[in-house]
TrEMBL record:
Family recorded in the similarity comment: Belongs to the UPF0291 family.
Gene3D superfamilies to which the protein is assigned, alphabetical: Helix hairpin bin (1.10.287.540)
Primary location: cytoplasm
Compartments where found: Cytoplasm
Keyword match Phosphoprotein: no
Keyword Cell wall biogenesis/degradation annotated: no
UniProt name for this protein: UPF0291 protein ISU02_17080
Keywords: Cytoplasm
């Protein structure tokens, strides 16, 4: 799970990109933060799927 600080930074950069645009350093930071977010999301989602138990009515 990403910290709230990192999530806030992702949102800030996304908003800034839409309004003003980002410089090269900010674009690089945004890509790194997005990759970290996706990695955390995928890990969490995989854990949820691993905990699913299929029960058949027989």
């Amino acid at each position: 799970m990403l910290s709230q600080e990192k999530l806030d930074r992702i949102n800030f950069l996304a908003h800034k990109k839409k309004t003003e645009g980002l410089n090269d350093e900010e674009l690089k930071e945004q890509l790194e933060l997005r990759e970290a977010y996706l990695k955390a999301f995928r890990s969490s989602f995989k854990k949820q799927l691993d905990n699913i138990e299929i029960v058949y009515k027989d």
